[in-house]
Structure formats: C-alpha cells, structure tokens
Amino acid sequence: MLQEILSWLTDPAHWSGPDGIPHRLLEHLGYTVVAALAAIAIGVPLGLFVGHTGRGGLALVGLTNGMRALPTLGLVTFLFLVLGSTQTSTLIALVVLAVPPVLAGTYAGVQDTPRGVVDAAQGMGMTGWQRLWRVEVPNATPLLLGGIRNAVLQLVATTTVAAFVGLGGLGRYVLDGLRVYAYPKVAAGALLVAALAVVLDLLLAGLQRVIVPRGLRLAAVTRRRGGVAREPERVGTDVVAGAVAREGANG
User: Which segments constitute the ABC transmembrane type-1 domain (predicted)?
Assistant: First the structure.
C-alpha cells in the first residue's frame, strides 16, 4: 500500500491540470484562509468586548459550546440545501465552525490578564480603552494566537469534508477515491491534508514566537502550570509601565 501511495503522489499526471495536486492544494488553502480571516474578524472583537467588560460571559460560553457541537457535514449539507450555492454555503459553515476557538481564545486571554496588572493600569490613570489595547491585548496575545492556530487546524480538516457537497480542494481526492475504491488515492489525499495542517501550524507557531514577547510566553506557561504567581504579575506590570512610558513620550 505504501508503494502504491508513493507511486500516486509521484505520478506527473497528478501534478498538472485542474485536478492536479497544486491546483487542489491552492483551492484548499484559499478556503481555509478566507474562512479563518472571517472568523478572526468576528471572534476577536467579540471576545475582546466580552473579556474586557465582563458582560455576557455565561452566554458566550454557552454559544461557543453549542457551535462546537454542530455536526460538520450536517451543517454544510443543510446550508447547501438552503442557500443552493456550494461555495457560499460551505464558507459560511466553515466560518461558523472556526469562530468558537478564536472567540474562546480571545476571551480567555483577556480574562487571564492578572487583575493586579489591570488595577495598576487603572491606578496610573489609563482609560478603559487604553487598558484594553495597551495592557489586556498584549497579555492576551498568547492565548489569542493559540485560538487562531486551533481554528486553522479545524478548518483544514473541515474543508476536506466539504467535498461531499461539491467543493474542490484536497477533499476531492478522498471522496473521488472512495467512489471507485482507489484507496491509494484516498490515503494520498489524507496525507496531503495532514501535511498542509502541519505546515500551517508550524508557520503560525513561528509567527506566534515572533509576535509574543518571551516574558509573556513564560508568564503564560507559569500560569498554566500553576507556578509562582509573581512572575506573571511582574511581566504584566512591565507591560503597564512600558505603556505609560510610551504615552508620556508621545505626550
């Protein structure tokens, strides 16, 4: 079987044309990127608002849990029957399924900001808007980006399922192979999806490492492991002090 899979992947005929691997890969990546950007545009502002104000936290938890419980194929098929457009219905379904991890990561990141740090920012005269963007958002970045990474991985897998309603992408290899019992093609399609997921996750992990300061990464690890509380407080206080210093310099 392994030899047959490698033969299918290395066959030049499978690397050209509308059904070739490059074309299907770009289709799959395009659906994933569009849905991820839409989920970020919805989930991040909503998560920041609820996390900062504390309003609607219980409703948010219930909403995200309910959205996560939706069956992927069932939602895609339902929207396809209602809207009649394969691409539109599928993209809407992908966004619905990608919003919960982004929303939950953003909300948890803001809530994870040490209260002492927020109180210190308020004591230094920062407004609510300044506390959000100069203190809470920097502290929330590790969990926020973690939620985005989770959403992207789910999108890569879910886009594969969307081939059952006529969408393109790498899922076509899995579906078309099952129809004619071409199991090397099915396995090759699954390997391509897995490889795409790994590559995207590594790219996002590298981006997260570049964006998130080392101190905040250590603070997040300390909090998750239940370590010494002084470390995240100190790092967060440094963020407040830096924000106030920048504000004074700009003034």
Answer: 25-204
